[in-house]
Amino acid sequence: ERAMALILLLCVSGMRAEPPRYSVPEEAERGSFVANIAKGLGLTSEELLARQARLVPEGEKQYFQLNQHTGDLVVRLQMDREELCGQSEPCLVRFEVLLESPLQSFRAEVRLTDINDHAPVFLNKEIVLKIPESTMPGTRFLLESAHDPDVGNNSLQHYSISSNDYFLVYTRRRSDGRRYAELVLDRALDREQQAEVTFSITAVDGGTPPRSGTALIRVVVLDINDNIPVFTQSVYKVSVKENSSQDAIVVVVSASDSDSGTNGEIVYSIVQNSEENFETFKINPETGQIRLKKPLDYEETKTYEVDVQATDGGGLSTHCKVEVQVKDVNDNAPEVIITSLTSTLSEAAPPSTVVALFNVRDRDSGDNGRTTCELTGEQPFRITLLAADAYALVTSETLDREQVEEYNVMVRARDEGSPALSVSKTLFVRLLDVNDNAPTFTQAIYTMVMSENEPAGRSLGRLSATDPDAGENAHVRYTLVPPPPGTLAAATFVSVDAESGTVRSLRPLDYEKVPAFEVTVRAADGGSPPLSAQAVLRIVVQDENDNAPVLLHPAPDSSAAGELVPRWAPSGYLVAKVVAVDADAGQNAWLSYELAKATEPGLFRVGLQSGEVRTARAVTERDAARQRLIVLVRDRGQPPRSATATLAVALVEDFSDAFHQLSHDPASGEQPQMAEEEILTTYLIASLCCVSSLFLLSVLVLTANTLCKACARAELSPPSPSCYADGDLASDGVGGTGTLSPAYRYEMCLTSGSGRSEFQFLRPVLP
Hints:
By secondary structure, the protein is mainly β. The protein folds into six domains: 21-113, Immunoglobulin-like (Sandwich), CATH 2.60.40.60; 126-222, Immunoglobulin-like (Sandwich); 230-327, Immunoglobulin-like, CATH 2.60.40.60; 335-432, Immunoglobulin-like (Sandwich), CATH 2.60.40.60; 440-542, Cadherins (Immunoglobulin-like, Sandwich); 550-652, Immunoglobulin-like, CATH 2.60.40. The strands form 17 sheets. Strands 1-7-6-3 form a four-stranded mixed β-sheet, with no helix packed on it. It has a four-stranded mixed β-sheet with strand order 9-16-15-12, with no helix packed on it. The chain is rod-shaped, with a radius of gyration of 67 Å. It is found in: Cell membrane. Residues 1-17 form the signal peptide.
């Protein structure tokens, strides 16, 4: 079974190797039916339509048209067989049928059959022959041939002459198949009876109906000349290269005449048997040199037959034939004929996508006409051979417009002549963009700085993303990515311009609340579907000095903090420590302390960085018992901000003195007790004055003194012990924020009006 399948495949391949041939008459009207291509290729019309069948002409013109729905091949342009092929037969118009999916090519031929649309034509309407009267009957004379461009039966078939008494005509055939006329003398001439014989010659073709052309033959009867010229050869055969220059010598013919005088002088001429010979060759009438009037072209005409006539002075003539064989040289470079070109190609096109279809043609023959085709340079394309001299330019790999946007593909065709000739054809292919690249940010993280309390609308910087695509696929737009639920709504702080990427603030920010924040920015292109990339935008809020220092100790709401310093305190004794903080950051939060005002400036000093209040020297008896200090706390912002702390310092000998100092302190909280003591002092002074004044009146004085004391006792409460708890002295600085250690507390009892002499410590109260 495999052997049978192989044989069948070989048979089918052999059948496909022979191109199908159809025929159509020349000058057929447009739309004329030629054949059904589908049947010839063994395909259905549905397959032709599905595989996008189309015709690729061999030349530059498309003479036929294919109906993909029916598979019919019809005439697209009228064709003149004589214009396309001249005298060549058969006249074939070749084309290729190209199918896709998969890519296949079939070569086909249409033969143009000749119609009789031309009549034979004589180049000269009058032919003059000079014939001596002594010419023997049976002598033959070569006549000028008529020209008929048709071929086959429609070409010239025979000649005839009108009725006359002296001549007959015979139709002869040349080696190339063309026919010519020979005039035969049937009866001897007699110049004295008839000096000139006139008759017509008619050339008739074989068409239906036949066409004909007529010329007039005028025979002039010459006086006797008994010797005719004789050529050295009846046939001259020469070969001439087609690249021979104009006026080059082809051959020299030679004839001789035995007569003497004018009858022996020979004049050479070319018998005009064709217009082509007349335009190509010329002869020197005296020397017989035949030269070229124009360069030869092997591709147009390969052989020439030239009839040369030698005539003597008496009018006698003879003929010879010159056969010129044109030798081909490699004078034609190959031609690259583009039949289909896709100048714009998507960069997403897969490998083996057809870009162009073209034919390579070389008019030379043999090795000079054999061609090869190649691409120059390294490019993602290759050439595929479809049929003889038919090629397809296809992609060889995937394309990337971002690397190379357009290609100048140079196709070079070279023949195998010596030297070889080549030609190059440049095909321009531009790639269309596909959205295959996402935008790319220039940085993964952008850091921008905005000042604290900066007004809204201020530009903070610019984001930048690039997209190597083109057009709308490269148009980048910027957006903020919404933050996850429950996180800081940083997107309300800044905005990003969708086109330029400019970042602007939306509202002022407080560094102390939001020192920095991050948002995610998305850059998306305009492709379909769009591609995007993300970057992190970090905004750092730059601190401004908008917060003054805040005192922690002493408390800012207290009028003054009381501190106790013993009079034996040495220099450097720690009195108190001022503690403050600043909500700003950096240099704006660096605090310094200085003594702004003091009762005795030289007694105390303040640590610049620590805020510790210490004695600058030892305390002396001359120093005031109560000292008031104002400490200035200042930050280093621009401009700087500050706060002040007030300290009340009491210099004491012992704790009784400390109580006395506290009780006379205007800042003390014992105002009701002080008022009571002042009233008692007033009454005592009044009593002493009365005793001095009324000493002699002792009874009266005694009575008055008794009455005064009674009045004083009535106003004062009975003496009773009064205990002061822990908080009673807090405002005076004992056991509160003073310099005594909070680890020791003392319980004391005082009686109203007892003064300081009855102030005693009973027992320490341990925590």
